[in-house]
User: Which sequence fits this backbone?
């Protein structure tokens, strides 16, 4: 017989699959009934929405008739809208000036940041050049015996500094 039939995990899997199949078999009718209830509830909500849409159309038609009859009111509203537009334009000018000032300030900050970065990069490059020159100078001026002594001294100095 295959060895898989002696494995406890295999039988746990089989029991799990049987339990899931049983649950699906038993719960299927309840799920379908729940979906049917939800479907009927959604249908009634859609019918209500259609009714409300029809009422809205009727209200809109009444409003449009009133609007045609109220020409004087609309002229007053237009005059108010013009005044409001003027105020909004003035406010927009102020907002634009503030935004331009803010962007100019941000640009200056970016330039300052870039200057700082460039200075740091130049400083790092200068350090690297100085280190390379020092290495070259040490490599040329020191013989092998002195180099070995310096390396040994550096290795001996490491353990206390690492703690």
Assistant:
């Amino acid at each position: 017989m295959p060895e898989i039939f002696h494995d406890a995990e295999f039988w746990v899997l089989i029991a799990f699959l049987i339990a899931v199949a049983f649950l699906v078999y038993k719960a299927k009718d309840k799920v379908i009934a729940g979906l049917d209830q939800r479907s009927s509830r959604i249908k009634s909500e859609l019918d209500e929405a259609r009714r409300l849409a029809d009422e809205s159309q009727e209200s809109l038609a009444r409003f449009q008739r009133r609007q045609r009859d109220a020409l004087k009111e609309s002229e007053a509203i237009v005059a108010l809208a013009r005044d409001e537009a003027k105020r909004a334009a003035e406010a927009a000018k102020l907002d634009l000036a503030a935004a331009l000032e803010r962007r100019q300030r941000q640009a200056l900050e970016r330039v300052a940041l870039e200057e700082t970065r460039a200075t740091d990069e130049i400083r790092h490059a200068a350090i690297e050049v100085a280190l390379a020159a020092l290495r070259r100078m040490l490599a040329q001026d020191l013989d092998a015996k002195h180099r070995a002594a310096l390396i040994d001294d550096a290795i001996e100095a490491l353990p206390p500094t690492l703690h």
